[in-house]
Amino acid sequence: MNNLCNEIFSRFPEIKPLCSSGDEELTYLLMGYVVEWLNSIGKSGFSKDVIQRVISFSKWCEEQPRTKSASDDIWTIFMVGFYENLFQEKYTKILIPKVMPKADVVANKDYLINWLGKDEYESVLKEYK
Q: 3: part of which helix (H) or strand (E)?
């Protein structure tokens, strides 16, 4: 998982202060730190640079080979540790349309409503313009 850890730290060096010793082995946690950092800066708006880093990171994760285990499958780690956290945070919701097609949100409506609640799901849909 060094590849993922290195990718996260190179694209989002701002999360290093959030990390403790040993966190580099906890990839789901690192993904959560990225979202935590994004949420903290979202109050003042996301710069084009930050949005582009999120988009390129999303694409990188999508391109990685799949594995059979959630412990080392980068796509699974990204979906659970990053996407799910994006949906939960107040300011990061506006990033969802930049990295996830509306069709995917609609296709996963039942799961998202069950997980987020109907009001939160609808608030995410409103971010698509």
A: helix 2-11
Q: Is residue 15 part of a domain?
A: no
pLDDT digits (tens, 9 = 90+) for 19-66: 998 888 899 999 999 999 999 998 788 999 999 999 999 999 999 999
Residue 62 lies in a domain: yes
- Residue 72 Cα to chain centre, angstroms: 16
**What's the whole-model pTM score?**
0.88
Residue 16: inside a domain: no
Q: Quote the number of domains for the chain.
A: 1
Buried b / exposed e along 30-42 (16+ C-beta atoms within 10 A): bbbbbbebbbeeb
Residue 1 pLDDT > 80 = no
**Residues 1 and 27: beta-carbon distance below 8 Å:** yes
Task: Give the domain extent around 33.
Answer: 2-10+21-125
